[in-house]
Amino acid sequence: MLLINLIALAVVTVVGVAVLVWDQWRTPAPSGAARVPKRHAAIGAGVAWACFLGALFVGFSPVVVGNMGLQDLPLGGRTVALVPAAAAVVFLVVHGAGDLTWPRPRGSVREARLAPRAADDIAPRWLHRMVLGTAGVLVAGMIVLGSIADGPRTFVAASSDGEAYPGWWYGVPVIIAVLVLVAAMEGVLRLIALRPAVVGVPATWDMALRRRSARRVLRGQQCALALTGAGVFYRAGLTIARTTEPETFMDPVCLVVVGLFAISAVVALVVPGLDFRAARTEPSASGAAVAA
Amino acid sequence: MTQTLRVDLESGVPHYEQIRAQVAAAATAGRLRAGDRLPTVRVLAADLGIATGTIARAYRELEAAGWVTTRRRHGTVVADREPSGGSRVGEAALRLVVAARAEHLSDQDVHDLVSGALLAHSVPSSG
Q: pTM of the full predicted structure?
């Protein structure tokens, strides 16, 4: 276990540093005033992603050890099902802490743009909908799996030895975790919208930095939800196939659902964010002073 | 183009009054049009780094004067308001500013002129 934890620590460190370097490299800073918030956003994101991956690694390492037969699995199945959600909560807490400690306005003369902004304005719409849709599919899937179960943890009670099934025993905590995640995600998106605007930069640059933060939060949540859904439906698919004679149609359906969850996570991670494209092309789009 | 609000924390003018005056001026000048949404109290307070109560008071004063309206689902929006005193006074104010610009007077000089004129023709207090 010590070796695994050391490897986890190394992975977390490497990923965190890589995110920081990548973020600094690709983000234009239109002025000196933009460097501090840019660095703050990069550090917050790096730490959040490192904590997310580290929590996943530490949470799932006992499962790997148990499957290799090195020792008995110390975690119950229900705990394992909640590992991605727990990692996502850590991710959101770190992101939220970064937004709550955002650099405050300084100086005796303060400026603000007279433009409204809300969580809907900063979150990429397609990604936001995909996360909410994934959460909805996961909740609906848990309800369906629980409804067709024979017992809280079994699909067919008579042949249930060693064949765990995600019935209500697993479904209820997973549904609660999904609802908590969605509520926490909306809260963090709201924090991103509410954090003080960066002064001395074009409005498009400030908005691009917010959109990038929101995109990172949504990507993390999509990964956690997809991982939970894929794991639950993979387990359900195996159990249904093994305990049903003759083989039912549910097994391939579960595997298709697993594939869709996996694809959604890959799409969320791979589709690039072009948040700073407008900021690069409109460097002088700063606000006009109302004050005489 | 987005309008920018400036608040001088060291000014003798209360912060809420600075905000109220700038929003009213922007609406008078047509830079804010009827139906334009203003940022929420919390957003503006975060951007300016001042208390939410200060922004809320400025918005209350603007609403009382008819410059803005607050709707439950739309937030605070600029109202469709005729300037008090009608178009004649507005045109006179515009002529004053044009003349001041031609004479290269500063904004502060114009403010002082108007303050002096208001003082010379002050309305007797009823109390």
A: 0.81
Neighbour tally for A218: CB within 10 Å? 23
**What is the distance in angstroms between the Cα of B65 and the nearest Cα belonging to chain A?**
19
H-state helical runs in chain A? 2-26, 35-67, 77-81, 83-100, 119-122, 125-147, 168-194, 203-243, 250-270, 277-281
Rg of chain A taking only CA atoms, in angstroms: 22
Rounded to a whole number of angstroms, the distance from the CA of B123 to the nearest CA of chain A is 27
B7 contacts chain A (CB < 8 A): yes
Tokens 């024979």 appear where?
Answer: A150
pLDDT at A185 over 90: yes
Q: What is the pLDDT of residues A225-258, one digit of tens each?
A: 999 999 999 888 888 887 777 666 557 888 889 9
**How far is the CA of B35 from the CAs of A130, A211, B76, B77, in angstroms?**
32, 26, 9, 5
Whether A290 sits inside 8 A of B37 (CB atoms) is no
Query: Which chain B residues are closer than 8 Å to A291 by Cβ?
Result: 4-6, 22
- At A69, list the tokens: 């037969």
